[in-house]
Amino acid sequence: MDQPMRFAPAGSAAALDHAALFEHLIDPYVVLDSELAIVATNAAWRALFAVGHATDSEGATGQARGTSGVPESRAPLRHEQLIRTLAGTMRSNRTRLSPVFRMDVVEASAHVAMRPRYWQMHASFIPATSSAPALIALRVDDVTARNLAVDDERREKARFRSHARLRQILHRETEERLDDRVNHFEQACAFAGLGTWQIDAATGAFVCSERCLQDLNAGEPGDLVKEQLLGDSTEHVSANWAALESGEAFEFERCVTPSDAYRSGQRWVLVRGMGRFNADGTLRYVMGFTLNITSRKQHELQLGALADAERAARERSEALARTMDHFIAAVSHELRSPLNAIVSWAELLGLVADPAHASRAGEAIRRNGRQLSLMVDDLLDSGAIATGKLSVNLQPVDLGVLAAVIAQDMRKPAEHKGIELRASAISPCIVMADESRMKQVVWNILTNAVKFTDSGSVEVSVSEVDGYAQMSVRDTGRGISADALPLVFERFQQIAPRESGRVGGLGLGLWLARHIVGLHGGTLAVASDGPDRGACFTVRLPLASGSGDRDGAVD
């Protein structure tokens, strides 16, 4: 009852009606007096909170009427102290609604405790009248379901908050573990000297570590760095992408040169990459690492250079061995021929007394002896040049006159082979030279031209060209192929077609001539249009300055 309840005087019909109405109210009610003593309760209250009903002296109803005419329960009530305490608090605070409180109810039939139940009291303060004192009517509402729902909601919210906090804790712990793993990975990469990079296949977005930028000599990520990671040519990029699409890794080495943006010296970098794919098999991104292999590459290059040097030295040694074999064979052959001739003619002189035969034998002995002498001189000069002990005594020499004299000496051997030797285009040219050494040069060049010319002519010319004395010896002989031209001035080499057979000589003439000309500050060159098209040897010496009073020696 929210409104104050007033009772009619005892014995009236109205009072009986109010009492019956109070007794049959659905909600449990209890009425307290000013001393908080229970004055009356209704049937709903007693059904919930009364332990039992006892009959009184007035009849079988078990009720007695108080001063107000309201039936008073003589049955003991449970939790009377709790109700009085709450009622006193509500009266002192003049509140009409109590806090929710717990009060368990025992079934009257079985006296078994039920589940916890929660209640809330509504107070109606009834002021005193002339016939009745002030009372407090308390209605007790069962709010167990609502309270349990609130408790359930509170527990659910608490559970959600707990789960949320747990998820936050797990998320934070996961992030911390991930950060730790990333840090450990970065530290491991840094310790190993690895730079990491990643390229998104769909967007082309590119990210890399600072170490990667250092390896590639770049200031910041860009298309140039991306190209360096995928290759430096269209074919290379295509091969790398083909490897990625097939699920394989690619790897290559590149030499990185300094740039204006990030200059730290040239280095070698190993780039390795592989693809990561989506569930449908499409390429998702390309990732990989860079590794500075400069020291290893330099070591490999050094080893390669040493291997090349050893290979070249071995080839030179083998070539020298072949040259020495060739030299020994050539010397044996070349020395044996004039020696056999000298011995044969000497024996003939002891057998015949005819002066004509004696004169012929003497001429043959002199010719072969001179040939032997020239060979020995060439060998001695070869040794002196190899040891750096060959010297020249420079004096003014007319190269034109010297060439004309030697051409005249070579005319008879040339005519003997049916070769025309021409020396008409000769002009005086004064040079500072060692005359005997220069004669040796001209003699070797002319001898070589006559030796390798089977028919045709040999032409000698001397003239002044651009401040130099230039002597040219042109022949119509066997010629020289382009790949053999660099070998013409090598020791013990004879450049001639294989089918032409070996020509007499040690193969030292042109080699000696070139070194002697070099000691004079000049050059000796050769040119040929090819096999069977002849050759041209050209000597260029500095012209002598002044009247030719300079002399001296050059080692």
Description:
The structure is a single chain. This protein has helices spanning 13-23, 43-49, 80-93, 144-192, 210-215, 223-230, 234-245, 294-351, 355-386, 399-416, 435-451, 509-519, and strands at 29-32, 38-41, 63-65, 71-73, 101-102, 118-126, 135-142, 194-200, 206-208, 250-256, 267-277, 283-292, 392-398, 420-426, 430-433, 457-465, 468-475, 523-528, 535-542, 552-554. The chain folds into four domains: 13-142, 2-Layer Sandwich (Beta-Lactamase), CATH 3.30.450.20; 193-292, 2-Layer Sandwich (Beta-Lactamase), CATH 3.30.450.20; 304-379, Helix Hairpins (Orthogonal Bundle), CATH 1.10.287.130; 391-554, Heat Shock Protein 90 (2-Layer Sandwich). It is built from twelve helices and 20 strands. The N and C termini lie far apart (144 Å). With 555 residues, the protein is α+β, with helices and mostly antiparallel strands. Mean pLDDT is 76; it is low at 1-8, 51-76, 497-502 and 547-555. The strands form five sheets. The chain has a five-stranded antiparallel sheet. A five-stranded antiparallel sheet has the order 9-8-12-11-10, with helices on both faces. The protein is rod-shaped and about 200 Å long.
Which tags fit this structure?
Helix Hairpins, 555 residues, 5-stranded antiparallel beta sheet, disordered N terminus, Beta-Lactamase
Task: Tell me the number of strands.
Answer: 20
User: Counting H and I runs of at least 4 residues, what is the number of helices?
Assistant: 12
Broad CATH class of the largest domain: Alpha Beta
- Report the portion of residues in β strands: 15-25%
Mean pLDDT: 76
Shape: rod-shaped
Structural class: alpha+beta
Largest sheet: number of strands, sense, barrel closure? 5 strands, antiparallel
Q: What is the share of helical residues? A: 40-55%
Low-confidence stretches: 1-8, 51-76, 497-502, 547-555
